[in-house]
Write a structure and sequence with these properties.
Length: 299
């Protein structure tokens, strides 16, 4: 049951991440990416901190503080900088596909570090889900600007940050709690982004913000940061990093659905086919084969 809850939490987290792309695309015309990240994780921190204190959750141990802060800077500061910078050079479709290398990176790095066993079922599931993303984005992959490979590499570097965070944070989350660990690590990343935004004077445009801009910023903080990354940590506590990472293939699919709903972007046959392939890949990677299940019951 813990495995199932972990996978469902990861899928919901990635789905929320996909909806957050719409809010980010709306705000990027008003303020720069550093300020967007500051709002997203700053508001997320303000929501998570009182919840953590009210619940009296167990904070990371003193010996884990350095690792927690380091992972927070890696995931909540460096990752959004690389993610946003990549979209300067490449299209959203190519960027989404590059980010979908996350489960493959997690699988390979986890096996190399000995933190997770490499199985055929997980490998096939990762490949099927990634192919599903490629199918869903098929019509947009050809329209790439000159030098798009730079953005693709930056997005893969962002995926690498996310993979390392998922692998290295799992034991730290188990020694504390999902909310407390996420709160402390998010605080480290948010502080870095706010300091950089102040140095670059990135907050100046907020003087002209209206209600829509503030609502988009609040949505990013509440749902795109606090809830999304709490669910991510909740999932990592209950299942393997690869099973959590493969859920990121849901992200571009939900982003396309939100784009169709809010921005009236067309829905094509390939999106439906991609959705089927993505969920088939997740099912393959996150379930146990009949032989393995029988063997585990016998032992």
């Amino acid at each position: 049951m813990d495995e199932i809850l972990g996978v469902l939490a990861a899928v919901l987290s990635s789905a929320l991440g996909g909806t957050s792309i719409g809010a980010t695309r709306y705000l990027v015309g008003s303020i720069d990416p550093l300020a967007i990240g500051s709002f997203r994780f700053g508001i997320g921190l303000l929501l998570l901190l009182p919840l953590t204190l009210l619940r009296s959750d167990r904070w990371p141990e003193r010996g884990d503080w350095a690792a927690t802060i380091g992972l927070g800077i890696l995931f909540f500061a460096l990752f959004p900088i690389l993610f946003n910078a990549s979209l300067i050079f490449t299209t959203a479709a190519r960027g989404a596909l590059a980010l979908s290398t996350l489960p493959l990176l997690t699988l390979v790095i986890g096996a190399a570090l000995g933190s997770e066993a490499l199985t055929w079922r997980k490998s096939i599931g990762v490949v099927v889900a990634t192919l599903g993303v490629a199918i869903a984005l098929l019509t947009d992959l050809g329209s790439a600007p000159s030098g798009a490979w730079r953005g693709d590499l930056l997005m893969m570097a962002a995926a690498l940050c996310m993979a390392l965070y998922g692998i290295w944070s799992k034991p730290l989350i188990r020694r504390s709690s999902p909310i407390a660990f996420t709160t402390m690590s998010m605080a480290a990343g948010a502080l870095c982004l706010v300091l950089l935004s102040c140095v670059r004077d990135s907050f100046a445009p907020i003087a002209g913000f209206g209600a829509p801009q503030w609502l988009a910023a609040l949505y990013l903080g509440a749902f795109g940061a606090a809830l999304t990354f709490y669910l991510w940590a909740f999932a990592l506590e209950r299942t393997t990093p690869t099973r959590v990472a493969i859920s990121v293939t849901v992200n571009p699919v939900t982003a396309s659905l939100v784009g169709a709903w809010l921005l009236h972007e067309p829905l094509r046959w390939n999106l439906a086919a991609g959705i089927v392939a993505v969920f088939a890949g997740i099912w393959i990677a996150t379930t146990t084969g009949r032989r393995a299940a029988t063997a585990s019951q016998q032992t």
